[in-house]
Specification:
The structure is a single chain. By secondary structure, the protein is mainly α. The chain has one domain (3-147). The protein contains four helices and two strands. It has helices at 3-21, 42-66, 73-98, 112-147, and strands spanning 29-33, 36-40. A two-stranded antiparallel ribbon has the order 1-2. A hairpin with a 2-residue loop joins β1 (29-33) and β2 (36-40). α2 runs antiparallel to α3 and α3 (73-98) packs antiparallel against α4 (112-147).
């Protein structure tokens, strides 16, 4: 099995264990916006990151099985690092916002930086995944055309 599918799989299992343990369940975020009340738990961030990580593990494993060309390890590792950065930033963001002092709303100004960096790392990771996939498919097509 490919290293990237193992890395994403282990990250997914670790995040699922953290979410299932209920470590972040005690924290919650209550948002009141235009007469609508939302209750949010940082646990949902852990579940989302876990499911996304397992999804990437399955995609890397399936692509390795069905495409005879090798994936770029450098692009895949960069994708894993960016996704891990996204996971850390958004988990810290969710826990930090849940622990905030609601009496001082100006204390939430800091959330812009981890939010922006988290979104940027997630989007760049997706771009790297699709670039890696495209390069692998091109190599596979060239190999099949050269064989005929």
């Amino acid at each position: 099995m490919m290293l990237l599918s193992k890395l994403f799989g282990v990250l997914g299992v670790v995040l699922a264990a953290a979410a299932a343990s209920g470590a972040a369940r005690l924290l919650h975020l209550d948002i009141h916006l235009h007469e609508t009340y939302f209750a949010f738990s940082p646990n949902l961030v852990l579940w989302f990151c876990s499911l996304t990580s397992v999804n990437f593990a399955i995609l890397y494993w399936a692509a390795e099985k069905f495409a005879p060309s090798r994936w770029s390890r450098a692009l895949g590792t960069a994708h894993f690092v960016l996704f891990s950065l996204f996971t850390v930033l958004f988990t810290a963001l969710a826990i930090g916002v849940a622990l905030r002092d609601s009496a001082h709303p100006e204390a939430l100004r800091w959330i812009v930086i981890p939010w922006f960096l988290g979104i940027l790392s997630f989007v760049l990771g997706l771009v790297l995944f699709f670039v890696n996939l495209t390069l692998t498919l091109i190599r596979t097509a060239r190999g099949r055309l050269a064989a005929h």
